[in-house]
Amino acid sequence: MIYVTQTFRQNEVLIMNKLTIPFNKPFISGKELYYVANSVMKGQISGNGYYTKKCESFLQNLTHSSKVLMTNSCTAALEMACILIDLKPGDEVIMPSFTFVSTANAVVLRGAVPVFCDINPETFNLDETQLSACLTDNTKAIIPVHYAGQSCEMKVINDFAKENNLYVIEDAAQSVGAYYYGQHSGALGDFGCFSFHETKNIMCGEGGALLINNPKFIEQAEIIREKGTNREAFFRREVELYTWVNHGSSYLPSELQMAFLYAQLENLKSVVKKRRKAVEYYLLHLKPLEDRGLIHLPTFLPHNEVNFHLFAILCRDVQERTKLIEYLKKQGIGAVFHYIPLHSSPAGKQFGRTGKTELTNTEHVSECLLRLPVYFDITIEEQSYVVNAMNNFFSKL
How many domains does the chain contain in total? Predict the structure, then answer.
């Protein structure tokens, strides 16, 4: 194990202080532009071509989902899932309040109501014990969000959904390369939704995927993604005419995006491995601060194989977190908080409601959570600098 010596701190900290350690730095494998050029040479860059099929095949083999359809964002995948379950005005969907706005927007766009549930204070995931308090006769689906690549308790959630005749749409935006009891996140409910946004472990700027785990939805999903046409079936020569057959929209990514993404997907295992090492370094070197009761480190459940998408700690209160963010910023370190709870946002109050429970965990985590820099090529020296800055801050309290 490498430790930062006093000599290093005295002689090198000024050099490090001139550098900026960003919160995130997108991973680049090296083949992205080659594959992009190759997609241009193949003569189809508009979408659903060679590299789209390569990405879909890769993800199907990875997740063992019945069907994977690439989309232009995770938001698009969530919207498609809500269309597929025929979500209508008056329907309700249970979801955590501690999530990105896309989770709720997909529901609101169908005229349905997001019902905000509290989270588990250790994993920051949907608290499955609170589902009954959110259930009504209008409930049609549950959207569990796998925060930081750690899966929700899907066995309990799926059992609850089955008992109450509900659909399950996994918001697995942060979970490519993550597993729950050996099964890939996103392949556990009726649908799974991936993100390949620039901030994710594997990315193409913007991009996503819809995992269809219930085969009865495959044909309709292809139509929705292709603007309501039977274009997919036409190119498979299953129908004679290519025409408008149902509602849909333009959810296809371009071949340029998919070529870029495929170069990234080929390196998925190495990306997770490198990020694991970075997270393990933080866990080891920040443990003394947790032992003193100054911070709370993340909890990883033994049946979850996480993908180390981010590293989040809990501070003692919002005031201390604000001071810590400001201090780290002055040291050239990018550290940020995460979601403002949806139930407390203007749109959340307008379009959604809470279940018959207090969202105390959601509010506490939102006020105290702080994310530290973690990315594929973060160095030991950079992480040591972050740890030293954390120690220096708390030594002055």
Answer: 2
